[in-house]
Amino acid sequence: MEKVVIIGTGCAGLTAALYTARANLHPLVLTGTMPGGLLTTTSIVENYPGFPEGIDGYELMVRMQKQAERFGAKVKFGTVEAVKLSQRPFVLTVDGDPVAAETIIIASGAGHRHLGLESESLLERKGVTYCATCDGALPMFRNQPVVVVGGGDSACEEATYLTRFASTVYLVHRRDKLRASQIMADRTLANPKVKPIWDSAVTEVLDVKQDKVTGVRIKNLKTNAESVLDCAGVFVAIGHVPNTQLFKGVIDMDENDYILPKQGTATNVEGVFVAGDCSDHVYRQAVTAAGLGCAAAIDVERYLAGLNK
Ligand code: NAP
Fold first, then answer.
1. Which residue of the set 11, 56, 97, 135 is catalytic?
2. What is the pLDDT at residue 135?
3. How many whole angstroms from 45 Cα to the centroid of ligand 1?
4. d(Cα 201, Cα 221) in Å, to the nearest integer?
5. What's the 232 CA to ligand 1 centre distance in angstroms?
6. Least reliable range by pLDDT among 41-50, 121-130, 251-260
7. Is 94 helix (H, G, I), strand (E, B) or coil?
């Protein structure tokens, strides 16, 4: 039986792994389908303390994993398919196999929010993408106009990154003001290749018949006027949804499915703790996720020490 199973290897999961490993709890750390989490899809991370020149997101996560493994964390490629939290020890089904655990830290993070258009899903990977760092340099986008949807830091980051490859980057936002932090917004709008399209929503990605992206249909939300914008790619950057479906109905969540901790990082199920973006819709930073991972590890350590008294 595992003393602690950590679900997720983003900043929260790997920091929890480091701390529980150093507490001799030999954590089993499960990667899920995206080892390293969402940060691996970011280019340069400029706001993680300790890296004055910034650090590549993928490299940061590789370093975190190595640091946790150095102290005995067992990082395993595997996806949790089911959890039984009504019995002790808990039982997780990982790629078909049962794993018994005394405690669990849920650090399953969040995934990309989709626009919810049928044409968007039909053209995914055929020009519709959720990650400029992963796909921006593909030949299909080079020297072509592309569209970024969204108005937050992610959209600004994607748009700025894409100016390296695309001829024009249309930033389509549903309001007339960016939500992004001032520094990111200023940097993005100052880039001559970025053309903002305000007060507008993408209503259809074209062209499903051709089986590739050739443009988007756009609606101006103030005038209701519709237009078509030619582009070779659509980069959707409209925020995230927490990866918490596995725990629905058992672990307390808010109306948007973010896990609600009860006290510190403890959830409503004794022995189950939570950390990072799957429970945080406010700060959502690499450094806050890491901090919460540390807190969850300390809470697990104290909980297990209390059981053994
Ligand atoms: P976000 O801040 O929640 O912004 C999402 C954006 O998408 C908003 O502008 C929102 O519009 C728009 N949006 C949401 N749903 C939409 C829909 N259905 N259709 C069209 N537009 C929609 O998400 P984020 O940009 O991913 O950022 C998440 C967190 O990560 C933030 O805390 C951010 O600071 C952080 N982050 C930091 C960095 C960095 O510092 N390097 C980079 C990326 C992200 P409204 O504005 O109208 O709500």
1. 135
2. 86
3. 17
4. 7
5. 23
6. 41-50
7. strand
The pLDDT tens digits for 52-68 are: 999 999 999 999 999 99
User: Torsion over CA of 219, 222, 223 and 228, rounded to 10 degrees?
Assistant: -20
Model pLDDT, residue 160: 96
Probe residue for ligand 1, chosen from 39, 130, 173, 174 as the CB with the greatest number of ligand atoms within 8 Å = 174
| pLDDT-based confidence at residue 308 (cuts at 50, 70, 90) | confident
Q: Confirm whether 97 is a catalytic residue.
A: no
Kindly name the residue from 11, 56, 97, 134 that is annotated as catalytic. 134
Q: Which two tokens stand for residue 273?
A: 């703790």
Q: How many CA atoms lie within 13 A of 152 on its CB side?
A: 8
Atom of ligand 1 nearest to the CA of 238: 7
Extract the tokens encoding 290: 């890491």
| Residue carrying structure tokens 């808010």 | 254
Domains recognised in the chain with CATH numbers:
2-111+240-307 (3.50.50.60), 114-236 (3.50.50.60)
pTM: 0.80
Q: How does pLDDT run across 268-292, given as a tens digit for each residue?
A: 999 999 999 999 988 888 999 999 9
Name residues whose C-beta falls within 8 Å of residue 268's C-beta, 6 or more positions apart in sequence. 251, 252, 260, 262
Taking every pair of Cα atoms in the chain, the longest distance, rounded to a whole number of angstroms, is 69
